[in-house]
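Why does residue order matter? Because the sequence determines the fold. Keep that principle in mind as you read this record.
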Amino acid sequence: MAGEDLVKIIEIVNEYKLLITETCKKISNELQALKSVGGKTDKIEELIIELSNNLSNIGGFCSKSDQIKILKIEHFLSQIITFKDNDINIIYELKSLLPFISGFIIDFKHRPFKLIDFEIESPIKEIISKFKLKLER
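Structure:
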């Protein structure tokens, strides 16, 4: 891969990482507003879909093991949207996951890229067991 191409790819991946971080902040703010004043979850659902999309975009540049982790997160996020009608409390659990979702570091030294500090399976499993959800593999 030519040096210029790699620089462009790194810039693209960094843009997606920034979008993930910004979307997580927006979700957190919306969750806080929802909790304090009540209201609808439509905006949160929209942001969850945006987050999932940006994670997918980064996944295209990552190792297979990181892609599997991203798929698990995406599946979990879709379950939050679906399950929230049964128990609104699950949407508040999302706030505890946001630092895990956005806090990873991208190792550009490896091809494909590796995500560092992207250990999210344990927190997801805790929420799944709390709400008795099923996480398909």
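Residues 3-37 form the longest helix (35 residues).
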